[in-house]
What we know:
The chain has 437 residues and is α/β, with parallel strands linked by helices. The longest helix has 17 residues. The protein is globular. 27% of the residues lie in helices and 27% in strands. It has a nine-stranded mixed sheet with strand order 3-2-11-10-12-13-14-15-16, sandwiched between helices.
Amino acid sequence: MPLPAWLAQAAATRPAHPALETCAGILTYADLLDRADRAAGALAARGVGPGDRVALLLGPGEAWVVAFHACLRLGAVALPVDVRLGPAERAAQTTTATVVLEALPEGGGEPRAADLRDTHDPAAVAAVVHTSGSTGAPRPVELTYGNFAASARGSAAVVGAAPTDRWLSTLPLSHVGGLSIVVRSAIGASTAVVRERFDAEATARELSGGGVTLVSLVPTMLARLLDAGLEHAPGLRCALVGGGPLPPAVGDRALAAGLPVAQTYGLTEACSQVTTSEIGDPGTAGRPLPGTAVELAEDGEIIVAGPTVAPGALERDGRLHTGDLGHLDAEGRLTVTGRRADTIVSGGDNVAPAEVEAVLEAHPAVAEAAVHGRRDAEWGEAVVATVVLRPGQTATERELRDHVRGRLAAFKAPKAVVFAASLPRTPSGKLRRDVLD
């Protein structure tokens, strides 16, 4: 069955409702539809048609959202590109694009009414989104209209959806977590609040102001908000935390501050969320979204099936083999323990870096930790930790190694601890374990 064109439907039912809030101001749904249709006309004048790929080389903000909806109105495929990438990286991601937009297209006349899409084919590709690149070069993933619709339904079933929602995004719109906020808001005819970048103090003030009902964060962002003094967020129904396992120490701090936190596990190939915990119970990544199935292979690999999974990501068995490792408890809640490729084999024993990182980050002096394997003549791989200390705090290598030994098996304790000012991360905030030395 065709899906209704989300933006057109929202503009028809709630024309005066705020659709988008950015630093440039507020666009109602009537405004956003008009701007998107004008941009669609300009794209059509440049030869863009259904199925053509349009690279969005735009910063997060009003122009980006208008251009994205213009693509959908034409039946073209949006290809978001992170503007922070270098020239070679940009070129690699835009080779299949018919047009590369570095500014909002204008002029060229209005498209005929027949040129605009009033419905979406669920099987058609809506966007090509690149993975975060946390384990290598980013990979393009073709996400369909059906994927986005199913993801929105599943998310709403867990965190709720109200027409008065204001979902705050400080995540890159070029990654699935940020993009999903724009799409879900249009599907629900609610308001997307898009900020150009994450600023801990500014975001804490905005959440404390009471106007935001939902926010998407990665664990590092949540920790920095707490460090910035966020203690109360009236109006906030859920702080959805994903992009990597939530360290228990950070989750406990958030709950102590009264924040309604939910941990989520997701990935680009599954159009964002796969599992989500109950709000206020972020100790695990929670249960699968309605309509999504999660199983574990014999080695603990997480396998996903359901309507959110990109068709091109399916293996021959019709399921997505994620490469992530985890376990399910008796209540069907998922705990992610790391990437299969990240597992350290030290002296014949397997060590999950995320487990060691969680213990290190529970130390009062540690702000962040990253654990990886280093080639070692004696152990095969030695467990090594890179640690960022909290401002004004001190800790020695021996102190941190003993801290881990007191809580985990001795073979999991780092053979070496390196101190650093920051950890390498992708633009979406995921740890770049592959570049650690």
